[in-house]
């Protein structure tokens, strides 16, 4: 058994203890202050220099001479619990090898592992040199670039700690579990393009719908056309992963808002869409195609209703605008020497941590802060985490997977920052 595995296992009970403490501390997006205080106190009490920045991120820095810098990045915030929970989302319980509780999987278990990794590394300073930086961030689940709701990692990269302190490598603790069997090495993930479509109509009494234009019916044409665009799209093969993976680019209409009264044909309809960008797609090209399609359908509607519009003097509009923070897909830069070094180290360490000779190399459909760390700050980033479920009732983290992820954090730091 590798030395780092033995070291990590000696601290694992503390990881479980902190996971339970973090789960029992509510921290829905923009309400992370109490959890941030607990993480800050724990780090300071254990001799790790730490502080809270202007947006609420907790930064912990373990220095040990001159050498490379490795960042551990994990988010403190959660989505709200849904009514379908059968267990108490804030009362962590362990049944067999599962620790249940809100955000246990996404991603308080892995965050606890990153916090405790600093303690383990502090014990063996003779084996490494450089800096290990913990960034426990706010607002990952709902953040944008807007100051009142800024994403914690975005702030770190734009004008915070990571914009001033260049790092060499980063690990994001989002889930990398393969097939619910073993922790893998996640090297990339989808981007996202969220947008809102607003179409108008002409209101009238619902007993005479022919005397108006129903905005809902107009919106249905746009929804169907966008859905057909998705249905017709081809699967995209993801490079570098093993086993092989293909994804059809996801598109979903998620929210529809229209109508004010049961007896009135609505004059407005708003539809929200979530289009995920698969690695290999150009987000600007996708944006242009969607915008062009919306314009094309609106012009077709104008022709259909030409006589009515001419008689009444009304106009038909279809506006499409972006919603929230939209970003491209991410892939670990394997042609960059540091990216390749990070990849090789992760394969080696995760293999030893899991006992799997060739650990899975995976790609995720969900967006993560790894893209921001690389695109904004130039830090090659990999994803390793115990999560295998998110945003669902009775969420749990498998303790075997949590142990594998925690071992990997300790081992990766020792591998990347090893004294020569």
Number of domains: 2
Oligomer: single chain
Physical arrangement of strands within the biggest beta sheet: 1-2-6-3-7-21
Shape: elongated
**What structural class do the secondary elements suggest?**
alpha+beta
Strand percentage: 15-25%
Estimate percent helicity.
25-40%
CATH topology of the largest domain: Aminopeptidase
Q: Round the mean pLDDT to the nearest integer and report it.
A: 96
Low-confidence runs: none
Mind telling me the CATH superfamily name of the largest domain? Zn peptidases
Number of helices: 12
Supply Rg: 24 Å
**The CATH C-level class name of the largest domain:** Alpha Beta
Give the N-terminus to C-terminus distance in angstroms: 22 Å
Largest sheet: 6 strands, mixed
Report on the architecture of this protein.
The protein has 420 residues and is of the alpha+beta class. It has 2 domains: 275 residues, 3-Layer(aba) Sandwich (Aminopeptidase); 132 residues, Alpha-Beta Plaits (2-Layer Sandwich), CATH 3.30.70.360. Helices cover 37% and strands 23% of the residues. It contains 12 helices and 22 strands. The strands form 7 sheets. The chain has a 6-stranded mixed sheet with strand order 1-2-6-3-7-21, with helices on both faces. A 4-stranded antiparallel sheet has the order 15-17-11-18, with helices on one face. Strands 4-5-22 form a 3-stranded antiparallel sheet. Helix 4 crosses helix 12 and helix 5 runs parallel beside helix 11. The radius of gyration is 24 Å and the shape is elongated.
